[in-house]
Amino acid sequence: MPELPARVDAQPDTVARDLGRLVLTIVELLRQLMERQALRRVDAGDLPEEKIEALGVGLMRLEEAMVDLREHFGLEPGDLNIDLGPLGNLLGPEAGQR
Amino acid sequence: MSLVWVYAVQEAGAGEAPDMSGVDGERPRVVGTEELAAVVGTVADDGFDEAGLAAAMEDLGRIEMLVRAHHGVVAATAQDRTVAPVRLATVFRDDDAVTAMLRQRHDDIRAALDRVRGRREWGVKVYVDGTAAPPPAPDAGAASTGDRPGTAYLLRRRADRDRGAEAREDARAVAERVAGTAAACAVDVRRFAPQDARLSGRTQEMVLNATFLVDREREDEFRDTVSRSGDGAVVEVTGPWPPFSFAAAEES
Amino acid sequence: MSGPVSISHPDDELSLVDLLDRLLAGGVVLTGEVTISLAEVDLVHVSLRALISSVSTLQQGDREDATDA
Description:
By secondary structure, chain B is of the alpha+beta class. Chain B contains 9 helices and 9 strands. In chain B, a hairpin with a 3-residue loop joins strand 2 and strand 3. By secondary structure, chain C is mainly alpha-helical. Chain C contains 3 helices and 2 strands. Chain C starts with a strand and ends with a helix.
């Protein structure tokens, strides 16, 4: 018979990790929004090639930085997805699958 | 000291309480007025007062026990009469408070019973293979390496986005088709949030989690047509449930 | 061609998540003279988080029960 937890408690030693998770989730949300916006600009076709390249490099570096930060905190991609109850997940159902 | 837990409301004289154990191991009983009655149980105030219930809500084992016991009493009562299930953890000071409420809320309760008379609740869930964008093809285009890595990155992300959007659109279409088929045989519908894969225990993604109020005479037709409407997707029908989701008046 | 269908009967092992979908949000809400009511969203949310954080334990149990049946 599996053991069920008696209570849900925030352990002191996970506070830093939880805070890190919260901050990174917000940063990740912003990063995704920026990527989405960049793609819209690319679709609209109103950016010169050099701008697109610079935008792409910047976003690529941002994604790499996010991976590093996440690993630093020992978090999986799926950890950065706050459950908002009836509103679903903060980053959507497919978040955490890249 | 004790309190009174309310399971369901029914018409006066509709029947006795079921012979079984309730949320506190107690034997349910009926209290009522001339017109309406409630199936209730006497529970210990320690554990069922505000502090006790709040603590219970953080304990998974307690939640499960309360939920299964509450549902069990309601389901047993609903087998042979019309009942309006009452929200989990509705607790009164004593029987007098219960009967006072039955008088005060008479019209609402009557309306609830009329809404569910001769009808049962059926759940419909639909699962499809993941709608996450599949991994991109190894060579995603001419600019995959070399002089324009930033552009290549954006093109990859755009391709991911488009594939994901198409998959989500297909999933939505399946969900709406099944929901539409079910609604055609039903009196009312409520949508729940799709259950997270971690909760459902399935690897596929849930794209529909709905519950329908169905006339008893149409139950066979409902199960038949709904189960055949998936067209490749997995359709899961559960029921019959006591009409929990349709007892409360819909908020406007 | 439709996919596989499963139909559960009420006396079988009812899925806890299906029960919670109905029991936490459904049912007549009787307030006023009521001493306690847990209709508040906060408490429901707390219980859902407790469920999600412990779900793997539950699933283990359900699968073991299912294969025993």
